[in-house]
Please model this.
Amino acid sequence: MSTLPTPTPHINAPKDGFAKTVLMPGDPKRAKHIAETYLTNPVLINDVRGVQGYTGEYKGKKVSVMASGMGIPSIGIYSYELYHAYGVENIIRVGTAGALLPDIKVRDIIVATGACTDSNYSCHYGLKGTISAVPSFELLKKVDLAVQKLGFQDKTRFGQLFSTDTFYKDIPDTLDWAKMGCLAVEMEAYGLFLNAARAGKRALAICSISDNLISHEELSAEERSKTVNDMLLLALESAISFD
Ligand code: HPA
Model:
């Protein structure tokens, strides 16, 4: 059910411009790359603030891609407008994350089964307690099947992400979150999962490891943009099995 009129303050696409499933990388350039590399007949449907959104087809199924920007406030705005104004049912965050365990390598894939956070984003719901942030179990089952189909078992882990509000920290406590089972740090999944829960919709976060905070192994910005292909294939193969 749509509760917001279109266009929205941040998206100028037509009302029926988006597919039911939207892939959301953080980086607008990556959204363009995904549309041009993987989608058939991609059509540009949004360009507000240079955040280009595209709708096309992957293996005959309609799929959209649009960037979320960086951080929970940014993905909070875009995912809210997609769920509430554009009738989007499924959002898959496809981004990079920093590994918190020594044996997770760059280019490995983390599929989030939940997100911890140091953000106060949940406070705006006014609930007296701690809101857990989880992806859709229904969609997770489909990702698991896609992992088997693609033969990605050795490079994929299912587990918790730590969604932080601060990339540059005065107190470096990120690695402490590994004690609570977090596999990797990024900056968006928690907000996306809460928006999906509140909207009664579905979300996933699938991340490609760009750096390891223990071994200090890392990919350059250029390598990052080229080596996320396995993550994108997994997201797209999963997406075509969604209802
Ligand atoms: N912090 C936050 N987000 C990230 C990091 C990090 O170290 N690496 C990749 N995404």
